[in-house]
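We now fix the convention by which a protein and its fold are recorded. Think of the row as the fold of the chain written in a discrete alphabet. Here is one such record, which you should read through line by line.
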Amino acid sequence: MNALNVTEYTHTLGLQAKTASALMARAPAAIKNKALKALARLLRESTAALQIDNARDLERARAAGLAEPMVDRLQLSPKVLETCAQGCEQLAAMPDIIGEIMGMKQQPSGIRVGQMRVPIGVFGMIYESRPNVTIEAASLSIKSGNACILRGGSEAIESNKALARLVQQALAEAGLPQDAVQLVQTTDREAVGQLIAMPQYVDVIIPRGGKGLIERISRDAKVPVIKHLDGNCHTYVDDPCDIAMAVKVADNAKTSKYSPCNASEGLLVARGVAAQFLPRIGAVYAAKGVEMRGCPESLAILQSVAGAKLVPATEQDWSEEYLAPIISVKVVADVDEAIAHINRYSSHHTDAILTTNHLHAQRFLREVDSASVMVNASTRFADGFEFGLGAEIGISTDKFHARGPVGLEGLTSLKYVVLGEGEVRV
């Protein structure tokens, strides 16, 4: 496509989405749920066919020399597709929040004032790698009564096209406009530039991908952006704690999967338990080939661990999102130093404390300035599906509107409603 064609094409998508959004906003809950159930069924029926399309993307990615963790993100395994189908069904089973009126209060003038939950309208979603995001975004858009324009990465184009066809088939089955979910069919980067600069059609942009992508969109967008830049998450092992539990959780938070933004990249350990805890977690990480970039105090304790990959940490390591079998390790004096370290270096995505001290747990929850804060649980739980949201469209580290996993509520807005009986202002 030449530049003129890309401009015309994206503006056509925008107009179609705007038109569809009005129909979606008034669609009954039963019809939206019918579309979601149809999509779940189609995903299961099409698993084999989807894997053929997905194999083309995987083959092209490997031929292009894409790193294996990135190739892993592209995979549409039967398990991934089943999770997508379950997410659609979970959303269908949830109450419809559109049209809810809350906080209705009588005013001295006689009017009653409250707020109604309504769809945002049209959102643009720009994402890299994971094609399952196509289904997460589409299903949340349907349930929340929005329309969306999806622009996936060129590395997953065949998978995304196949999934988008199923979404439009499900919409048609339910009698909803197919243009309610549209996939940008071109890999031309100019389409992104157009999509983020159409406030007449698009109400919000949600980028999901690498830091470069999100920085570019935040800089150039002419519509509001819901974003998170990176996932430098921390696990803090407190004094006192259950050492065996701490080893289990710190292991899962780092090694269950290296590529997600909710994997722990930093491990903080209270000085009082460091001598007990570090050799045990060090042995686990060593067995799994995880490199530990430590402060001098942590390295001195970890020296005794056979086969450990130990590297002195630099200042940059405390801020790093590795997305790889690497973790920074620091011994801290206590919960105060842990909170201060996290608030300075974390990306405010997800941070966890492992402790048996209730007061320490409460302080951590109150004072750590992150979108998700956890007690005695793996940071890997920071996920819309795991939080019971049905699906998520991304995780926001912004502080306004939507924060943390962005599910149904994050794709809605509130408008004031006023009920009167002929009152006039004096």
The radius of gyration is 24 Å. The mean pLDDT is 95.
